[in-house]
Design a protein that fits this description.
Chain lengths: 282, 282
Amino acid sequence: MDIAIHEFDRDTAVAPLGAGRHRGLVSPGYSIGPYPNGGYLLAIAVRALAAEVAPPDPLAVSAHYVSPSVNGEPFDVEVDVVRAGRSHATAQARCSQDGAERMRVLATFGDLGRLEGPTVELGSPPDLPPLEACLGGPRRDGGRQNAPMPNGLVAAIRDRWDARLDPRTVPWLAGGEPSGRGEVAGYGRFADGREPDTLAMVLIADAFPPAVFDLAPSAWVPTLEFTVHIRARPAAGWLRCRFTTRHLRSGYLEEDGEVWDSSGVLVCQSRQLARVNRPRPL
Amino acid sequence: MDIAIHEFDRDTAVAPLGAGRHRGLVSPGYSIGPYPNGGYLLAIAVRALAAEVAPPDPLAVSAHYVSPSVNGEPFDVEVDVVRAGRSHATAQARCSQDGAERMRVLATFGDLGRLEGPTVELGSPPDLPPLEACLGGPRRDGGRQNAPMPNGLVAAIRDRWDARLDPRTVPWLAGGEPSGRGEVAGYGRFADGREPDTLAMVLIADAFPPAVFDLAPSAWVPTLEFTVHIRARPAAGWLRCRFTTRHLRSGYLEEDGEVWDSSGVLVCQSRQLARVNRPRPL
């Protein structure tokens, strides 16, 4: 019997402090360079939010980031329930470290096991090469796989989130020029074998390299706003993910994400507004 | 000299009550059936938010709707400034009527007149037929243009927001079947000649008929979550707008919007998560 707790569940665990307050701890395991991944931080908030409402699944989660979080420090989530419905519930989270607000979150929950209504699917999962032909892979040498990225940053998150990238979408990863198509696609799963679920979607939708790397060299892509729609409970197995940036304007960009499960169902859509910071001499 | 106040500015005006509190009034002029348009309500909130922060332009606005608003009643907006920066500011609005919360909003503001950074545009405005070939148009008979839509609802908003629809995208409007492409496109401007600005984008991105009408018959499409990214200050003149729904799943759908200005610049992107309610016998 497998009683081990998975990394993601341990690293997003929150302790209830009463009156809607919860405390987590920012693991350094989800960082890009010195900064924790924004989707990971949002996952801590979603865990706290889910503890305060009845419906089990986040349907829409919106986060506005206001200051960079610090690794290894507590992460305080103060939940305010806006609407405590049984079919839908909406709540807000104020997330802070040592009193400094890091992000403000709104989330609407529902029950993806009890939906009824028409289905029309005009999209399709990304057409990916076989897993073996993708870049990335299991931890090597019994240790870390993460060599610095072309921008010089080490992505610790690569040890927790196993992204296998379609090499056609990441020419810059092998030292080539951006293709100009603004797309990054690949397979993804948790490195320790944890299966995906709706709570993990906010991390998963932010856990691939930025699609803007395929348009313009950037050292760092801080997120201003990030919204995730969770549309279905994912089947077990590899997810197929596609991220695109089509409008980079005066340094601001959107990144749109799609996450498809192993049964071919769109389980999540995401969009973020981010900025590119210029590459610095490394 | 034109000193008349435009309808949109009058209908979104808020009176400051101190301590971040503002009061507006829900005009019945932006309704679809009995309910005020969600983008219009959000515009009232954005007016109040803008009054409390320094940067002039909303960059990202996220709204979670929790109960239907009532026409003709006061609309109270309580603003909480999360980050009061000069280049970026983030604030939250709690919107209520007679104490009942209607929606919770997060917004990040910036200055779209002072951006610098790279631009790469992979998209393009919708390819629309000439204005004269589009459906909709100026008020007729000196009065209202809005006959009931195929779902039986009267859209009062059509008298304030002049949408000229590409007939190829709205076959259902003339009694035909949905095309199954999930797209609605057209020109848009305020009916009274007010030029577009960044504050109006949250209305504009919700002021066209739902794209899901081109996929499945629906009586009503209530929004759960709506996020708008404003990317540039719009030039004067007709806007070109495109709305798409590609994933209708168990009655839940996303609607993605793009608003392009008369100079060919993408000024706004939007996405909402909504539900379709089944048509009722009329």
